[in-house]
Task: inverse folding
């Protein structure tokens, strides 16, 4: 794959982080939007690329449109955006368990509302990390043992659905009817206002829906090291629903980077499920 310039949003950890590391190691440059750039102060891998100029750290919050506009300006023309925003519930002594109902969708709205129009380049490719099990059809395809867990994730799942609805709108695709109508508590009233016109991101979006994520090894790399890969990854990737339990975050990153390098194979699928 030819080197790319990538804007990483949510790349301080997990699949977004490992995707960025893979790209950097392959000669690409990555601009990270980070609420706390200090998160990489003790990371020797990222610091090596910061010193070489391949990794750029931009301070800002993707849920603030002015910060996102600054990030686009600092990054310059980018070939691809890897969007892997996600959040964990927080505990408050006064309010109990707190879950931001529109962290992911709200960030995606800001990303797209502030996205510049390039004079001499196409809009960037967007790879967005979502999840399997969204909506009744996808939930039904889940393995029985993990269905209760996914049922307990209703609020973050509605948030992911909102993100997918925003991307579908900008890609000029019909909204998935199994996801229901866009929720006001997730996308707000008149959520399509100031978004790029439908079709702006036609063939420029790939939604990746991983199975239950783990912190395991990159099995794809393991096979390649042993000379057993032969072009076949240990995970499955399909536009159809998968009956899959898990996949490691590192293997998701392997898929993301490979998909960017083989975009013609995935651009017409829009959304792909990945799992073992």
Result:
């Amino acid at each position: 794959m030819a080197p790319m310039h990538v804007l990483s949003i949510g790349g301080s950890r997990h699949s977004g982080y490992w995707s960025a590391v893979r790209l950097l190691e392959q000669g690409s440059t990555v601009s990270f939007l980070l609420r706390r750039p200090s998160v990489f102060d003790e990371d020797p891998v990222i610091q090596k690329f910061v010193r070489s100029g391949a990794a750029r750290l931009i301070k800002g919050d993707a849920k603030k449109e002015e910060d996102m506009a600054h990030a686009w300006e600092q990054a310059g023309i980018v070939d691809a955006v890897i969007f892997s925003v996600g959040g964990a519930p927080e505990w408050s002594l006064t309010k109990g368990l707190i879950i931001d109902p529109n962290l992911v969708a709200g960030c995606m709205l800001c990303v797209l509302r502030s996205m510049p129009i390039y004079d001499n380049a196409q809009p960037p490719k967007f790879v967005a990390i979502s999840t399997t099990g969204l909506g009744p059809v996808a939930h039904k395809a889940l393995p029985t043992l993990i269905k209760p867990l996914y049922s307990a994730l209703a609020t973050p799942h509605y948030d992911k659905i909102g993100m997918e609805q925003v991307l579908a709108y900008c890609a000029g695709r019909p909204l998935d009817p199994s996801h229901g109508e866009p929720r006001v508590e997730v996308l707000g009233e008149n959520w399509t206002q100031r978004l790029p016109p439908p079709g702006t991101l036609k063939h420029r979006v790939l939604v990746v829906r991983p199975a239950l994520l783990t912190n395991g090894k990159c099995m794809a790399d393991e096979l390649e090291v042993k000379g057993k890969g032969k072009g076949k990854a240990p995970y499955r990737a399909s536009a159809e629903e998968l009956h899959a339990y898990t996949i490691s975050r590192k293997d998701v990153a392997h898929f993301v980077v490979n998909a960017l390098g083989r975009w013609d194979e995935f651009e017409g699928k829009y959304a792909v499920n990945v799992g073992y």
